[in-house]
Amino acid sequence: MSKTSRPAPPRAPTLDDVARAAGLSSMTVSRALNTPQLVRPKTVEKVLAAVKATGYIPNALAGGLASRRSKMIAVVVPQINNSMFVDTIQSISDELAVRGYHMLLCVAGYAQQTEAELVATILSRRPDGIVLTGIHHSTELKRVILNASVPVVEIWDLTPTPLDMLVGFSHEKVGEATADYLLRKGYKRPGLLWTVDNRAALRKSGLCEALARHDIHDPAVVDVPLPARFAAGRQGLRDLLNKGSFDVIVCSSDTLAQGAMVEAQASGLRVPQDLAVIGFGDLDFAADTHPSITTVSVDRQVIGQRAATLLADRIEGLPQEETIVDIGFHFVERESA
């Protein structure tokens, strides 16, 4: 956790700024944006270029509402068919409701360009605040967010330089903690089942760097497409076993770990006697599988609660002692490893 003093946000670009950039009157710019069919195409083209250059966000609400709070918070997540995000989303919604706000849930997938386009559309509805998943965003999105002067909380990651506020944990440290566990238990031949997203990549980097310091280099990796699914865990283990023999399989999610365990047992391998398995997330089923899954636990509900509280406090002008919250994590040792 850290205390920070942040400068006042920059003024959001206005219609007059666009008019000056385009060399046109504000009335012409307004017509070009609201009724482009009544304006010459070349003029519309010039206005759109000025909008892009200034970072102006057209107001999609009625003029009389523009000065009022919308009581709406936009929450942008990559997917909703993942318990990892569902618990956080529900927690955000519950906490916001207590404070009198409504949540607008938006699914952006994992492409930065899609996220940027979605956020620009959201901002045109003038939300009171935005929650973004992760810290890896396109330059376009960062520019639009900063120009909009709207409170933002990034979640599920950690950096000393967020866009505004942040609630999360260090994925690199999760990887290092996993490596420490493997070494402490005496595992020397790890294989990795891993999704190809930024946060998982950070965990893998922390894991591999920590293992390399103990002369365990370049563990075999099978990349798994997003979103992580049970079937992908089964197929991923089959692919790994074709690469060699292992004493432990480390997975980027509990869902993959569950699939890997079922595939191992179907192949006649005992878990953990012949092959240990480790997951991530401590999802609801992890403690109740057979064998139960050794994993890393992150308090998904707390992420949501703290994110909603930071936003509501900022919107309402309440004092904030911290704008970066590290909720940490802990390793959960169970039967699978």
Index terms:
about 325 residues, alpha/beta, six-stranded parallel β-sheet, 12 strands, about 40% helix, elongated, Lambda_DNA-bd_dom_sf, transcription cis-regulatory region binding
Short description:
The protein is α/β, with parallel strands linked by helices and 337 residues long. The protein is built from 11 helices and 12 strands.
Could you please describe the fold and organization of this structure?
With 337 residues, the protein is of the alpha/beta class. Helices cover 42% and strands 15% of the residues. It has helices at 15-22, 26-34, 41-54, 83-98, 112-123, 139-148, 171-185, 198-212, 230-241, 254-266, 300-315, and strands spanning 72-77, 102-107, 129-133, 152-155, 165-168, 190-195, 220-224, 248-251, 276-278, 295-297, 324-326, 330-332. The strands form three sheets. Strands 2-1-3-4-5-11 form a six-stranded parallel sheet, with helices on both faces. It has a four-stranded parallel sheet with strand order 7-6-8-9, with helices on both faces. Strands 10-12 form a two-stranded antiparallel sheet. Strand 3, helix 6 (139-148) and strand 4 form a beta-alpha-beta unit. Helix 4 (83-98) packs parallel to helix 11. The longest helix has 16 residues, at 83-98. It is elongated, with a radius of gyration of 24 Å. The model is unreliable at 62-67 (pLDDT under 50).
